[in-house]
Write a structure and sequence with these properties.
Layout: E1 2-13, E2 30-31, E3 34-35, H1 36-45, E4 50-57, H2 62-68, E5 78-79, H3 84-93, E6 98-107, H4 115-124, E7 129-136, E8 141-147, E9 150-157, E10 163-165, E11 169-172, H5 173-183, H6 191-197, E12 201-206, H7 217-227, E13 235-248, E14 253-255, E15 258-260, E16 265-266, H8 274-286, H9 292-295, H10 309-321, E17 324-334, H11 344-355, E18 362-367, H12 373-376, E19 380-391
Parallel strand pairs: 1-4, 1-6, 4-5, 7-12, 17-18
Antiparallel strand pairs: 2-3, 6-11, 7-10, 8-9, 13-16, 13-19, 14-15, 17-19
Helix pairs in contact: 3-5, 5-6, 8-10
């Protein structure tokens, strides 16, 4: 088993619970005109730290599944087992060929999980520790016993140190797979319990009341009310960046965060990475924070020959401080030479690394100006970038 990626989301959608005795399992019911499973899948697909989304379904639900996720580009679903615990284990086993570093298990019928909760769980996972979102119990708890036609209180349960567990529940993949294998045949209430049984530590991060599980008609009504509100849980913002640098002799050519073999570099106060500068301006523009010159003025000696990854990291941090999450970066590099194609993937990976986002979030294209203008005459390179962020 080789570890090939970062974080994979495993959506558990193999249950057969029906609404009002109907024939459609609840995960395929529409809320706000969208199947619950699709809403959950889209949330994880668009999160910049999630590299892949896998879904475990009931063998009888293949047709429902295909309709619900049409167009999302998900991989082949995994057919689940008799119990939820079996389904999760089967889903984990299906990842062994291309094992992730960590996995997040999520109930498909929790459609309103936020990016903030997902990010908090991811941040708390270590090679020795899993993490779950949870809410402290605030209501007084009573233990009851059936007595004729009613239930009578038998005990008041202290609520100190009691928490309500939610999903996604995240764990280091290898240790968690071993825990599930060891727990096969037992009946445990959630994945954290499986981890606990194996001795794997589990941290708790702040959950949210909106991350509720749809189990009955009242929950479905609450979900419909949630979906019919203002809609998105955040505000989408777009930023545009453009930069130009002329060629200069006796300088390395830094482009997209990497050094490219070429007989000239670019002229500028810093390392003149025109591609990163365009992305920086786009990120700052999306949050209304000016441009690269505001933060790193060329008049200041400390930025002389500075590596542009410093500027990009600062812009990414500014987005985070503003409460934003980067949804997409589209970068176009405009030049006659050098050829960009051989270095495109390395640039994508480097930009994603600097910003700590998934490479899937970054797209790079290249074009020429058909030998027109200063780039057409081979005098320099231009770059433009469009980014989309969501303010949470």
């Amino acid at each position: 088993m080789s570890v090939t990626g970062g974080f994979t989301a495993l959506l558990v959608s193999a249950g057969r619970g029906h609404r009002f005795g109907g024939e459609t399992p609840k995960q395929y019911l529409d809320v706000g005109g969208v199947p619950l499973l699709r809403t959950s899948a889209q949330t994880f697909l668009k999160h910049p730290k999630i590299d892949a989304v896998s879904v475990v379904i009931h063998p009888d639900d293949r047709a429902l599944y295909e309709v619900a996720v049409e167009g999302l580009g998900l991989a082949e679903p995994v057919l689940g087992g008799a119990e939820r615990q079996d389904s999760v284990r089967i889903g984990l086993e299906a990842m062994t060929t291309n094992a992730p570093r960590a996995v997040l298990i999520h109930d498909a019928v929790r459609p309103f999980v936020s990016d903030a909760v997902i990010s908090s769980v991811i941040a708390a996972i270590t090679p020795e520790t899993g993490a779950i979102p949870a809410l402290a119990v605030t209501d007084t708890l009573k233990r009851g016993q059936q007595n004729g036609g009613s239930v009578h209180i038998t005990e008041t349960v202290p609520r100190d140190a009691l928490w309500r567990a939610q999903t996604p529940q995240g764990f280091p993949y290898g240790a968690f797979l071993a825990a599930h294998r060891a727990a096969a045949g037992s009946v445990l209430t959630d994945d954290a319990a499986v981890a606990e049984a194996s001795g794997l530590a589990v941290a708790m991060v702040a959950g949210e009341e909106s991350n509720f599980k749809i189990t009955g008609p009242e929950d479905l009504a609450r979900a419909e009310a949630e979906a019919s509100g203002a809609g998105a849980r955040g505000i989408s913002r777009t930023g545009f960046g453009f930069d130009v640098h002329r060629f200069a002799p006796d300088r390395p050519l830094m482009l997209g965060g990497i050094e490219i073999p070429f007989d000239q570099g670019l002229d500028g106060h810093s390392d003149a990475d025109v591609a990163l500068h365009a992305v920086v301006d786009a990120l700052l523009g999306a949050i209304g924070a000016g441009d690269i010159g505001v933060y790193f003025p060329p008049s200041e000696a400390q930025w002389k020959d500075a590596a542009s990854h410093i500027f990009l990291k600062a812009a990414g941090d500014a987005v985070a401080v503003a409460g934003g999450i980067i949804r997409s970066i589209d970068l176009t590099i405009i030049c006659e030479a050098p050829r960009i194609g051989p270095y495109r993937d390395a640039m994508r990976l480097r930009i994603a690394e600097i910003l700590d986002i998934s490479p899937r979030t970054v797209n790079i294209s290249a074009t020429t100006t058909e030998r027109l203008g200063f780039t057409g005459r081979g005098e320099g390179i231009a770059a433009q970038s469009v980014v989309n962020i969501e303010l949470l």
